[in-house]
Amino acid sequence: MTVTKQDVWRVATEIDREGDKPSAIEIRRRLGSGSYTTITAALKEWQRPIEDPAAADLGPVPEEITLRMTQATADLYALVVRRTSDDFEAKQAAWQIERDALVAERQAALDLADMVAIETEACRRRIRELQEEIGTLGEDRAKAQGAAAVLQGELDRERARADQVSAELTQARAQLATARLDLEAHTREKPSARPVGQARKAAARGVKVAPAPTAPAGAQ
After folding, report:
1. Measured between alpha carbons, how far is 76 from 74 in angstroms, rounded to an integer?
2. CA quadruple 32, 35, 36, 38: dihedral positive or negative?
3. To the nearest 10°, the Cα dihedral for 214, 216, 218, 220?
C-alpha cells in the first residue's frame, strides 16, 4: 500500500491527541508500511491542529447552512470537473497533435530507412561489379604482360639477328673490298691479260687481231 502525506498527517494527529510526540518510527509502525524518507518528509509538513473549546458549545449546524454548503460543494465540484474536462480536452488535443507529429516523423524515418537500405544494396551490388571488373582487369593485365614478355623476347631475338646480319654484312663488305684490292693489284701485275682476252673473243668471232708486242730481251 502506498503511504500518502494525508495518511502520515492523520496518524500524527492521532498520536498527538494521545499526548505523545509523533515520530516516523511510530507512524510507520501504525501504518504498517511506507518508507522513512516519505514519512519524515510528510511529518515535517504536519502541523498540530488548533482546537477551539468554544466550538463544542455551538450546537448542531442548521439544515439551511448544511444545504448551502452541500450546494456550494456541488457547484465547486462541477466547476472543478468542467475545468478538469476542459484541461483534459485541451491536453488530449495537444497530445493528439504531438502523436500525429510523432507518427509522421516515424513514417518519415521508416521511408528514409527504406531508401537507405535500397541505396546500400545498390552500393553493395556496384561494389561486387567493380570487384569482378578488377578481377577481369587483373587477368587481362596478366595476359597482356605475358604477351608483352613474348613480344619482347621476339624483339630481342630479332635485334640479335639484325646485329648478326649487320656484322656479317660488314665482314662481307670488308672481304669484298679486300678482293677488289687484290683484283686491282693482280690486274696491274699482268697487263697482257686483257689483250689476250680480246684476241680470244675476236678469234671466236673470226676477226684477226694484231699480236701483242713482245717485251725486249733486256726487259726479261
Report:
1. 5
2. negative
3. -10
Q: Which long-range contacts (CB under 8 A, 24 or more apart) does 26-35 make?
A: 31/3, 31/7, 32/1, 33/1, 33/3, 34/3, 34/7, 34/8, 35/3
Please, what is the angle between helix 36-45 and helix 24-31, to 10°?
A: 110
What are 75-120's pLDDT values in tens digits? 888 888 888 888 788 888 888 898 888 888 889 888 988 889 998 9
The pTM for the full model equals 0.29
DSSP string, 8-49: HHHHHHHHHHTTS---HHHHHHHHS---HHHHHHHHHH--PP
Cell numbers that stand for 91 in this block = 491536453
Phi first, then psi: give them for residue 3, nearest 5 degrees: -95, 130
According to DSSP, residue 190 is labeled -
